[in-house]
Structures are given as C-alpha cells and as structure tokens.
C-alpha cells in the first residue's frame, strides 16, 4: 500500500507542474482504495498543501498578485462552502446496500457525488472540447468560486482553475506560480474544516504514509521544475483518466 501511494504522489506532483492539476486527481483514488472516501480526500489535502507550499518556495515570487486577489479570494469562499458540504454529506446514511460475495457494498450520497465529480474531471481530460475549455477574463470571480467549491468538496480544483486562468494574460511561470498560490489558499481553508469534523486522530495516525507521500511529492515537484521544458505528460494523463474512470464507477456503486 505505502509504495503505491508514494509512487502515485511522485507522478502526480510532477504532472501538476505541467498541467496545473494532477496530484489530487491521482492521489485521492489511491488513498480511496485503502481509506473511506472522506478520509482519502482529507489525507490527499494534507499532501497537496505541503507539496504546494514546497512548490511555492520554488516559484512563489512569480505569482501575479492581481490574479491571486481576483481569483484566489472567491476560491477561498467557494472552498469553505465545498468543505462544509463534504462534512455534512459524511454523516448521511446509505441510499442502498448490496452484497458482492461477502463484501458489503454501500451506496452513499457522498460516494455518488464524489464519483460523479471524478467522472466529470476525467472527461475534462479525455474529451478535447472539455480539455481545451477556456473562459474569458471577465468570469474570474465566478470561476474562483466554482473551482474553490469543487476543491473543498472533492479536492479537484486544478482543471477548472486552469480553464479560467489560461486567458489571464500570464506567462508560463507566472501562470504556474499563481495557480500554486491559489491552491494553497484553498487548502488552508478546507483542511481545518476537515480536521474539525472528521476523525482527527485517524488522520494523525497515518503520519508515516503522509510523510512518505509528501516527500515523494516534493521529489516530483523538484524533478518537474528542473526538467520543465523537456517532459510531456499526455501518456500519464491518459493513464490517470482511465484509472479515475474505473475508480469512480466502483465508488459510485459502493464497491469501494
């Protein structure tokens, strides 16, 4: 288990430097195989924040202050709302229970919602019309609210954030640094809510896995930063999308 998570953290962190998203996309399903989905989102959020703080130390000086304010503040608001809804959904009873052999499968509102979101973000990586989705600069405030909301609810915010920031007139370095800065803002908003409402002791007891996943993510960020102009990620992105598709279906029907 632990080495699967470590390798995924490394690859996901490397991918985020090129696409603006990837670590949460890859790591949440892997954690979700071994932990309840809300705990998986919280554990991924911790690694995501620590990794982004590391990337911020590498690139933070290049962040665009205007975009951080115009997009980041709405993202924080949306992130708080999304995180609160996640904590609310966690306590809801299963909608349906069935058996697969001796395994009890529970279909819960939270699993269904996270599964649908994962499918949506998977299609954003597979369907050209969605993959190349871009929004005008005038929609930055609404885009911040929307991407922050999905970040708080499921941890998946990068794809939408990228779609809104891509036309903000930023060069490549400023675009990446601004996205990292905003991601940190959302993570710092949602994680305290997770710890307040979820089993904080359970999260803390997994410190070894979190440490290894974080170090692996740091290594991925360092490699990505050093070879930024030499690496393409299309193959990894396709593998990620396929994995997410399978995981989302299994989660939605209650197998996971």
Features:
256 residues; mainly alpha; two-stranded antiparallel sheet
Structural description of this entry:
This protein has helices at 2-19, 23-34, 37-59, 65-90, 109-126, 128-131, 140-154, 158-165, 172-197, 200-205, 207-226, 234-252, and strands at residues 96-100, 103-107. The chain has 256 residues and is mainly alpha-helical. The protein has a two-stranded antiparallel sheet. Helix 2 (23-34) runs antiparallel to helix 3 (37-59) and helix 5 packs antiparallel against helix 12. The chain has one domain (2-252).
Please provide a brief summary of the model.
With 256 residues, this protein is mainly alpha-helical.
- Strands across the major sheet, in which order? 1-2
Instruction: Provide mean pLDDT, rounded.
Output: 81
What is the rounded Rg?
17 Å
Order of helices and strands, N to C?
HHHHEEHHHHHHHH
Shape: globular
Q: What is the count of helical runs?
A: 12
Low-confidence stretches: none
Helix content, binned percent: over 70%
Number of spatially distinct domains: 1
Q: Count of DSSP E strands?
A: 2
Strand percentage: under 5%
Write the layout of secondary structure elements.
Layout (H helix, E strand, L loop, with lengths): L1 H18 L3 H12 L2 H23 L5 H26 L5 E5 L2 E5 L1 H18 L1 H4 L8 H15 L3 H8 L6 H26 L2 H6 L1 H20 L7 H19 L4
Antiparallel strand pairs: 1-2
Helix pairs in contact: 1-2, 1-11, 2-3, 3-9, 3-11, 4-7, 4-9, 5-12, 7-8
